[in-house]
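Subject: Predicted fold for Methyltransferase domain-containing protein, 268 residues

User T.R. writes:
Posting the sequence so we have a shared reference for the thread.
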Amino acid sequence: MDTIEYKQSIQTTFDKVSSRYDQNSFFGISAKRLAALLPAADELHVLDISTGTGSVAIEIATRHRDAHIEAIDLSREMLDIAATKAEQMKIPNIRFSQSDVDNLTYSAETFDVVTCGYAMFFYPDMEATYRTICRTLKPGGQLICSSFTQAAFNPYAELFLNRLKSDYELSLPAQIKDRLKSSQKWQALVETCAYDRLEIVEYPIRYPISVDDWWGLLNSAAYRSMLDQLQPDQLAAFKRDHTAEVAEISNNGTVELNADTLFCKVTL
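User M.O. replies:
I've generated the structure tokens; pasting them so everyone works from the same file.
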């Protein structure tokens, strides 16, 4: 899969899951935590990349009423939901636009803060994209990002991926496998561009969900792209087999969702 096909796949997947995306509580929990890491300053100029349904941008806007926020994403469907949420909440200081982070048109040193919630690991040429993002930051500006830990979503994600591999020879795209799941991997990325200070904090996000909720999560996040490669009869068989193996290790149909998160704050 080349870069154009990969990006189209990402856009298509998130268009499909947009209406169910916010059912995953960890996105809202993480957005609050990420927004709390911004500096306490008036009239911040903020760029939120891969804004999705706008959780991070909206949380920042509620905390920083005088901020000027640009929020971009590849998915038109996600942006429409984000804009509707902001309108319903009467938040006027976010401008949503469909844009590719690799083709940013902002001038150098435009923003005080750039935020990126659970998305840096999706970018095909992550190091080049990271440097492009840094270029848009003012001297002393901050890039604040989140990513999942190695343990996040396990053991259920491992069961999911192992069965897809063994039964249907499907694997995660090489572009995103195992990216940014540790402090060391964040450090390696950050060192590709000059910086002044790096802070990385691991934050636990855990709560009980049902086996049916787990299947819903798989259908309302990036995992959906793998399920979409199955034929209807294959999908039905996979759902039966996978939910059965998750149920076997559940507590009367309930499992603990681990969405533990790394928050990375880089000051240039």
